[in-house]
Write a structure and sequence with these properties.
Blueprint lengths: L19 H11 L3 E5 L5 E6 H11 L8 H5 L13 H11 L3 E5 L5 E6 H6 L1 E2 L11 E2 H11 L13
Parallel strand pairs: 5-6
Antiparallel strand pairs: 1-2, 3-4
Helix pairs in contact: 4-6
Pfam families: CBS (PF00571)
Protein name: CBS domain-containing protein
InterPro entries: CBS_dom, CBS_dom_sf, Diverse_CBS-Domain
Length: 162
């Protein structure tokens, strides 16, 4: 199965200069937990999650409207996949980098969708229940991915001011 078969194609995005308050409202209005940041040519340059918003405000001790998306993402690498990549390749990328969402980019490196843990889980099914035409992702692969991505990670040190 390919990423294009399960990815979401209607993706809200914004520029890196948007404030975390604006990004949070985009999440609220689009019922999502992550917003990709794109440049003028629609190339993804970062991604902001709901957790990034809360941690960014807590660590920087600033209101959301004073923090830009780029302030959160500028020091992080962005991982993307292509619509013709296999689900297994996307799972491997997510697992290797401990992320739950991947922007999907076309041949011009422009945002064309998103694939998330939820998308993958919704296409996961018991192999014995496959019917002709049904497309399912291996339950074993999904469970291995969930086990890894949901494991506790080493704690980050809180800023000295706390």
């Amino acid at each position: 199965m390919k990423v294009k078969e399960i990815m979401v194609t209607e993706v809200a995005s914004c520029s890196p200069q948007h404030s975390l308050q604006e990004i949070a409202m985009l999440m609220w209005n689009n019922d999502c937990g992550a917003i990709p940041l794109v440049d003028e040519q629609e190339h993804p340059v970062g991604i902001i999650t709901d957790r990034d918003i809360s941690m960014g405000a807590a660590i920087q001790h600033k209101p959301l409207w004073e923090i830009r998306g780029e302030d959160i993402t500028s020091h992080r690498e962005l991982y993307c996949c292509g619509p013709d990549d296999s689900i297994q390749k996307a799972l491997q990328l997510m697992e290797a980098h401990e992320v739950r969402r991947l922007p999907v980019v076309n041949q011009y490196n422009q945002l064309c969708g998103m694939v998330s843990l939820g998308d993958i889980v919704s296409f996961t099914g018991a192999e014995s229940s496959k019917k002709a035409g049904d497309k399912k992702i291996s339950s074993k692969e999904t469970m291995e991915f969930l086990r890894h991505i949901s494991a506790h990670h080493p704690a980050h040190k809180a800023p000295a001011s706390l």
